[in-house]
Amino acid sequence: MKAQVWLVVLAVSFWGVLLGCFVLDVHRTKNETYTYCDNVVIPTGGRNRITYALQFIKNNLSQAPKNIFISGVYRKSTIQDILMGRKIDDDLNFILEKRARNTKENAKEINEWIKGNCIKEILMVTSDYHMPRSVLELRHLNIEVKILTHAMRSEFDFRFIFNCFKEFHKITYAGLKHFFENM
Fold first, then answer.
1. Can you say how many angstroms the Cα of residue 178 is from the centroid of all Cα atoms in its chain?
2. Strand, coil or helix: what is 152?
3. What residues contact residue 34 under an 8 Å CB cut-off, 6+ apart?
4. Considering the entire predicted model, what is its pTM?
5. Is residue 15 part of a domain?
6. Residue 127 domain flag
7. Nearest-angstrom CA–CA distance, 104 and 140
8. What residue numbers bound the domain in which 66 lies?
9. With contact defined as beta carbons under 8 Å apart, do 69 and 41 qualify?
10. What letter would DSSP give residue 90?
C-alpha cells in the first residue's frame, strides 16, 4: 500500500512540475519582431484575438499583408461585424472561414487554405497560451509551411493560469494522439 501511495505522489508531482513548466514557458516566451509577412492567420476562440491581431498588423508591419485569414468566425458574421467601425486599409484581403469550431478544425481549415493557395509562409497571431497547440495542430497537418508566430500577451493572473491549465491538458492529449497515430 505504501508503494502505491508513493507512486501516486510521484505521478502528481511530475504532473505538477510539467504544468508549472508549461505555464512559465508560455508566460516567458518573447515575441519575435516581424515587419512583413504576406499571409496573416488568426485562429479565433479567445477574447480579443481579432482586435489584437488587427492592431498588431496596423502598428508593427511596415507593409500590409496580402491576406488576413480569420478561422472559426461565427457563421453569420461579416467583415463589417468583425471590423466594428475600425479604420482599416481598404486594400486588405480578408478571408473569413466559418466552419471551424475548435483548434483542430482551425488548423484543418488554415491548412486547406495554405495548400489551395500554394502559401509557403504565414504569420499566426493568437493568444500566448493558445499558440503552442495551434502550432502543433497545424504542424501535424503541414510540415512544409513556415510558421511565424506572434502571441497576444496575457496578464499573469488567475484567468491566464486557468487557461494554461486547460491548454496544458489539451496539448498533452493532442501531442500523444499525434504521436500514437504516427507509430
1. 17
2. strand
3. 60, 61, 123, 148, 150
4. 0.92
5. no
6. yes
7. 10
8. 33-181
9. yes
10. T
